[in-house]
Amino acid sequence: MASRGRDEDKKRLSEILSIQDLRSVSHSKMDQMAREYYDGGAGDGVTLKDNEAAYDRFIIRPRYLRDVSQCDPSTSLLDHPLTMPLGIAAAAMMKLAHPDGESAVARAAADFGSVVCLSTFSTTSLEDVHKAATTTTSMSGKRPCFLQLYIFQNRETTIKMLNRAMKAGYDAIALTIDSPYIGRRYNEVRNHFKLPSHLKLGNFEENSGVKVGGENLMEDIESKSRKQPDRYDPSLEWDKDIQWLRSVCGNMQIWLKGILTAEDAELALHHGVDGIIVSNHGGRQLDHVPSTLEALPEVVDVIRGRIPVHVDGGIRRGSDVFKAICLGADLCWVGRPILWGLAVAGQDGVRRALDILLEEFELTMKLAGCTHVKQLSRRMLAKRDAMGYQSRL
Ligand SMILES: Cc1cc2nc3c(=O)[nH]c(=O)nc-3n(C[C@H](O)[C@H](O)[C@H](O)COP(=O)(O)O)c2cc1C
Ligand SMILES: O=C(O)C(=O)c1ccccc1
What we know:
The protein has 14 helices and 13 strands. The protein has helices spanning 2-14, 19-27, 32-39, 46-56, 101-112, 126-134, 155-168, 186-190, 217-224, 238-248, 262-270, 292-303, 318-326, 336-367, and strands at residues 58-60, 75-77, 80-82, 86-88, 115-118, 145-149, 172-176, 253-259, 275-278, 309-312, 331-334, 381-385, 388-390. An eight-stranded parallel barrel has the order 4-5-6-7-8-9-10-11, surrounded by six helices. A three-stranded antiparallel beta sheet has the order 1-12-13. Strands 2-3 form a two-stranded antiparallel sheet. Strand 6 (145-149), helix 7 (155-168) and strand 7 (172-176) form a beta-alpha-beta unit. Bound molecules: flavin mononucleotide (FMN) and benzoyl-formic acid. This is Peroxisomal (S)-2-hydroxy-acid oxidase. FMN binds at residues 90-92, 119, 148, 176, 257, 279, 312-316, 335-336. One of its GO terms (molecular function) is oxidoreductase activity.
């Protein structure tokens, strides 16, 4: 029975040609609460839509007659090889999509040659995910592994988690800086979003005081944050907290996730972080902030190669990865496409999402006249506007 199910999944997967196909099929695999939690954004969804739409405002300026018979889409991260400049973004509660949850995603990433950033609010323990993310049959050498961090008001909760992450072998922490509070997400209120009772948070004891299940996410954070100690800490500041984090992170690198301006990029550099991720949380936090593709150039310009700059939000095709790398990102992280793949067929569905993005990225490189990621530059793009397009960026 189980193998028949897997055969059916395989057949269905072979008919899925794009991330859009995966998104459509995933909708029939999730109930309304999970589907809208995954796909939805904050407020009116202006930023959510703009993250994707921004990619259509940039056009590729291809160069021809440049021998593209060989093409190498690979790169590296923290000295580990990656099949392409692509990582799997932190997403909470992956078992809402599929019972194999985060471990299936981590296994697919390891076999493909990608990197996982595990959410603080995973439904699998960080130790199990690290094992899955670093055990691979197809890639040689150690695999990189990131842990996304929310800092709690009770710092002991955060310290405990960081100590576990160090012991398990995580390479880097990605501190999410765009969420002192949870954004306004109407779907979570309307659907009475909660973690179903058969699922548990993987990184906290039940008596730890950290919860997202059993209560509406928004009410949970907003009305109870002042009464209960173990909520995100909205008082974080550059000066005191980055230094504190450094003192409790051992050898793990510290990255900031959620940078959208040159000003904050400069502060990040000044505070000695190891890398930054240009992100607006997939349009789930403050609505009406810039699309990440359009925020990227000002951040890249101020950082000037001194630390790596990554980007996430709205990446749905290999050509989107191509455009983000042309605008100066070292790597793209994808969120929802992975969740859609997971919902459709567990590990195989995640692998399908990754394979689609790789095939498309490689073909885009070749058709644009590039054979190595290092050749991607702003000169390969133009920006469309009401008058036509500007050929120089
Ligand atoms: C369902 C869902 C849950 C998420 N949970 C987290 C989280 O726990 N921590 C975090 O920093 N970002 C979280 N994110 C944001 C992602 O890390 C990432 O910034 C975003 O999904 C990228 O946009 P994309 O989904 O358009 O690729 C979540 C995103 C989604 C869709
Ligand atoms: O949904 C999210 O985007 C998110 O970051 C989150 C995860 C768990 C609890 C609250 C918010």
